[in-house]
Amino acid sequence: MPAYIIANLQDAAPHPEIADYIEQLPGTFRPYGGRYLVHVTSHEVLEGSWAGSVVMIGFPGVAEARAWWDSPAYRRIAPLRSRHIKGDIILIEGVPEGYDPSGAVQALRAE
Fold it and tell me: pTM higher than 0.70 for the full model?
């Protein structure tokens, strides 16, 4: 199953270290099959609230995403971001091609 790292980044304080982080980041995730799906593009809030910017990186699976997150290359540059940008970052597993939610519906109806 594909996996995704999704970051909701807020309160970015302009700093040269952020530019260094952005410049170095792709080189840390590409060896794990990662690729940008969303990178700080504009978004429209359709319901609720969503402050900040979104970054989404796709991976072939959870194992590759975790391996990247824990990699020495990423751990080395992570402070360049975390010192200057607050936010929430999640790892989430995707669904397979052709996913059908009927099993989830059946489980809800059985409760």
Answer: yes
